[in-house]
Every structure is written in C-alpha cells, then in structure tokens.
Inverse folding.
C-alpha cells in the first residue's frame, strides 16, 4: 500500500468513527465539511480553483455546500475512501499529489480531538516530507513575518521567510515541521527559539499554501 492510500484509509476510518459533527483544525469546518472538501478536490475540477484563489472561493464554497446537501455524510466518506478522478486511475499520481494533502487533513482531524498524540511515522515518509519541505518551504513561509530556520531532528536545515532581519528557529521531526509550515503552528510538536515577540508573531502568522 502506498503512503497516500494508507493515509486515505486511516483518515476515512477516523471520519467514520467520529461522525459528521466532530471538530477539525480547519477553521469553521466539521468532519462533514472536510469530507465534502476532499470529494470536491478530486471529483469536481471545475470548483478546485477556489481552494487557492480567493476570487473563486465563493463558487468553491457553494459546490462544497451542495455536496453536503446532496450526499449523506457516510456517502461522502465512502467517496473519499475510493480515489476519484485521475487519482483513482493512476496510483503513482495519487502518491505524488495526495500523500501530503491526506496526511495533513488526517492530522487536522486527529489533532482536533482531545488527548491526541503525535504518531511515529515511517522513516521513508519522514524523508518524503523533508524533500517536499526542501522544495516548498519558501512558498509555505512566504507570509512569515520573520526569517525561519527549520531544523530537522536527525539532520537537515532549511532557511525561509524574509532574508534580512530577525529569525526564529523551528526544530522538530519532518512531519511536525510540515504541519507547522502548513499553518497548524499551535498543533505542531516543534520547539521555537527566538525572542518572545518574534516567536509569537510567527505562531500567529497565516502560513501555508
């Protein structure tokens, strides 16, 4: 089983377990909303633009709400469980495009529940996350108010954010650094080193894609 398929299965198992009204780390979204988002992302390419482009966000939101109105929650989760669109046909593309998306959203559900604990991830998955951070950290941290030095436990350093001025060091495993850079700062198991003011500014910054 690929990492993408493993995260997909684990996420769907958890969605089934929690039901439609459980919280997630996605602001304003329940598990029902998250399931509709994932179905939209894979099966409604006409509405995907609003995920990243604010001028199109209204249409995307309307399609997502329509999916919720049209499909009961168990039906949406079942659709998420089966890769849709081209991802269902090309396993390699599913792995390349969806591993991080599904990992982050799996953690969005896990970490919104009481008494969650960080998972021990396979070494090859941690390595994949570090490679993606190496190529994408500058984009994810483009709105950082201070320079950011990412220290991976076990080895590896990345620089992102403003080049001049103060810096904050963020130390953790690759999966935790990924969650931090995706805007889940308050729920990432990392250590921040810097002046208190700069640390607070970075924690509150709108990071992510």
């Amino acid at each position: 089983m690929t990492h993408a398929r493993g995260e997909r299965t684990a996420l769907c198992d958890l969605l089934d377990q929690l039901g439609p009204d459980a919280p997630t780390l996605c602001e304003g979204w329940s598990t029902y909303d998250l399931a509709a988002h994932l179905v939209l992302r894979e099966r409604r390419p006409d509405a995907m633009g609003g995920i990243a482009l604010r001028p199109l966000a209204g249409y995307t939101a309307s399609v997502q709400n329509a999916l919720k109105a049209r499909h009961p929650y168990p039906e949406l989760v079942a659709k998420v469980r089966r890769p849709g669109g081209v991802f269902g046909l090309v396993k390699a593309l599913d792995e390349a495009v969806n591993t991080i998306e599904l990992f982050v959203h799996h953690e969005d559900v896990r970490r919104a529940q009481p008494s969650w604990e960080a998972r021990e991830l396979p070494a090859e998955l941690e390595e994949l996350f570090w490679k993606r951070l190496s190529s994408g950290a500058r984009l994810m941290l483009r709105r950082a108010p201070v320079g950011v030095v990412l220290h991976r436990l076990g080895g590896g350093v990345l620089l992102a954010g403003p080049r001049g001025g103060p810096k904050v060091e963020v130390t953790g495993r690759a999966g935790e650094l990924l969650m931090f850079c995706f805007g889940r700062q308050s729920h990432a198991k990392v250590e921040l080193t810097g002046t208190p003011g700069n640390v607070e500014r970075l924690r509150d910054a709108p990071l992510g894609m």
